[in-house]
Amino acid sequence: MAGQGARVIRCEEVGFDYGHGPVLRDVSLTLESGGFHVLTGPSGAGKTTFLRLCYLDLWAESGRVEVLGEAPTPDDRAAVARLRRRIGVVPQSCRLLDHLSVFDNIALPLDVVGLRNKAQLGNVSDLLTWTGLTERAHAHPPELSGGEKQRAGLARAVILSPEILIADEPTGNVDAEMSLQLLELMVELNRLGRTILLATHDLDLIRAVRRAVPARILRLAQGQVQQATA
Ligand SMILES: Nc1ncnc2c1ncn2[C@@H]1O[C@H](COP(=O)(O)OP(=O)(O)O)[C@@H](O)[C@H]1O
Ligand SMILES: [Mg+2]
Question: Do 220 and 179 share a structural domain?
Fold first, then answer.
């Protein structure tokens, strides 16, 4: 794991455009290892775009994105795959596979990297307990509530023990109480040394983050990221 204080993500003058005007303009930003970073800003500001650049799902048009000390190009598939394994992602819509049980959805990343063995499947059970989903292990995603889906998405994102957790509006479709429960799980991961990058425009959630951890709040607007002071 990268040492405390080391940089896990570093952007230098990053620009991005989907083809109808710039979404990100010369964004320079360093996220330190072990930090809890919150990215906020209005809907459409480019939060998801920025996160996708960080987890190597999109590629900057200008500037440079360095993740865990490396800045691979999209053709360097082996390096991209290796780095992606070290990043856990809870995407905006959590994309569980409906034909698989909760257990198998959480275990899926193990299959992808060929690690589905007894010890690792024990970790799936531990994550089910951690997220309060033990009773739902054999249910399928269409039977789950929004909050249960998000917790399953979080468990799946951390099954490979990633160094960074990137969560995109994980509380977008859940009630206030469930938001706080999800936040508690993320704070716990952060206390275990994981670096967190959470995008949200939910001000109540941001206040709750601040009460729980010394978070760094970043605000994205007009294509630029600024450190929020309040
Ligand atoms: N795949 C895409 N193709 C074209 N435009 C997109 C795409 N994804 C997002 N956008 C546009 O880019 C801008 C930033 O979007 P996004 O990063 O999703 O913002 P946020 O997550 O802050 O709501 C918006 O104007 C959005 O419409
Ligand atoms: Mg978004």
Answer: yes
Query: How many domains does one find in the chain?
Result: 2
pLDDT tens, position by position, 142-179? 999 989 999 999 999 999 999 999 999 988 878 888 88
Residue type (1 letter), 115: L
The answer to whether residue 23 sits within a structural domain is yes
Are residues 187 and 168 both part of a single domain? Answer: yes
Q: If you measure from the C-alpha of residue 120 to the centroid of ligand 2, how many angstroms do you get, rounded to a whole number? A: 32
Task: Give me the DSSP letters along 109-124.
Answer: HHHHTT--SHHHHHHH
Q: Which residues line ligand 1 (CB under 6 A)?
A: 18, 23, 41, 43-49
Count of other CB atoms within 10 angstroms of residue 175 = 12
| Beta-carbon count within 10 A of 171 CB | 24
Residue 169 lies in a domain: yes
Pairing of strands 22-32, 36-40: unpaired
Q: Would you state the pLDDT for residue 117?
A: 82
pTM of the model: 0.94
Atom of ligand 1 nearest to the CA of 42: 22
Q: Residue 125 sits in which domain range?
A: 96-152
Q: Which of 128, 197, 193, 131 is nearest to 163 (CA)?
A: 193
Say if CB 18 and CB 196 are below 8 A apart.
no
Q: What's the token pair of residue 42?
A: 């209005």
User: Average pLDDT in the 63-68 region?
Assistant: 96
